[in-house]
Amino acid sequence: MKTDTRRLIVLIVDDDPADVLLIREALEATGHSCLLHVAGGGDEAVAFLRRTGRYVCAPRPDVVLLDLTMPGMDGRQVLVEIKTDELLSSIPVLIFTASQDPQDIETSYAEHANAYVVKPTNLDDFKTIVTAIEEFFAQVASLPTAS
């Protein structure tokens, strides 16, 4: 286990306010210190990650929780933008989506997603999975530093 006590910086990319609220509540309930940022769509996520426009002072996230199905630039396109950008490609991207489509799973891993997790429909399971994700990235994984 890591002994690093630095706050985990998480970028949630999801257009569903209910899912964002559930993720936020589950992360806050862990008792660990996370700094959460939310992008409600793909274009906003890319602006945040590239620190453009109103996000010029945005921190580099330690992990991105990325939904696939969003209007406009969807999560698939965001994943490609992240993983083909030399400055962003080392950021772990966890696909966190309702899609169970085997093609989405295959394509996400082919585009270098670090993990693919299907959002559970049961509230308790949802919170359990988000807690496990946070614990893994905050306490177990060694994460890259900003380049």
What does this protein structure show overall?
This protein is α/β, with parallel strands linked by helices. The chain has a single domain (10-138), classed as Response regulator (Rossmann fold). It is built from five helices and five strands. The chain has helices at residues 17-29, 42-50, 75-83, 102-110, 123-140, and strands at residues 8-13, 34-39, 63-66, 93-97, 115-118. A five-stranded parallel beta sheet has the order 2-1-3-4-5, sandwiched between helices. The longest helix has 18 residues, at 123-140. The model has no long low-confidence stretch (mean pLDDT 92).
SSE topology:
Elements lengths: L7 E6 L3 H13 L4 E6 L2 H9 L12 E4 L8 H9 L9 E5 L4 H9 L4 E4 L4 H18 L7
Parallel strand pairs: 1-2, 1-3, 3-4, 4-5
Considering the chains and any ligands shown, give keywords for the structure.
single chain, 147 residues, alpha/beta, Rossmann fold, five-stranded parallel β-sheet, 5 helices, 39% helix, globular
Mean pLDDT: 92
The CATH architecture designation is: 3-Layer(aba) Sandwich
Q: Approximately how much helix is present in the residues?
A: 25-40%
- Any idea how many domains? 1
Widest sheet, order of strands:
2-1-3-4-5
Helix and strand content put the structural class at alpha/beta
**Uncertain spans, ≥5 residues at pLDDT below 50?**
none
- What is the fold-level CATH name, i.e. the topology? Rossmann fold
In terms of DSSP E residues, the strand content is 15-25%
First-residue to last-residue Cα separation: 24 Å
Q: Helix and strand string, N-terminal first?
A: EHEHEHEHEH
Q: Can you tell me the CATH superfamily?
A: Response regulator
Identify the overall geometry. Answer: globular
- What is the β-strand count? 5
- Quickly count the helices: 5
Q: Report on the biggest sheet.
A: 5 strands, parallel
Top-tier CATH class = Alpha Beta
Radius of gyration based on Cα positions: 14 Å
